[in-house]
């Protein structure tokens, strides 16, 4: 199921980006 893997990858990437953005906003 490539679509499921793609959706999971995008979700994981979005979560990682949100986490990094949160840390940057926290330290700034």
Briefly summarize what is shown.
With 28 residues, the protein is mostly helical. 93% of the residues lie in helices and 0% in strands.
N/C terminus separation: 41 Å
Shape: rod-shaped
Count up the helices: 1
Let me know the number of strands: 0
Query: What sequence of helices (H) and strands (E) makes up the elements?
Result: H
Helix content: over 70%
Largest sheet, in brief, is: none
Tell me the Rg in angstroms. Answer: 12 Å
The chain-level mean pLDDT equals 90
Unreliable residue stretches? none
Q: Briefly note the structural class of the backbone.
A: mainly alpha
Estimate what percentage of residues fall within beta strands: under 5%
């Amino acid at each position: 199921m490539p679509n499921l893997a793609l959706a999971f990858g995008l979700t994981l990437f979005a979560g990682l980006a949100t986490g990094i953005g949160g840390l940057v906003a926290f330290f700034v």
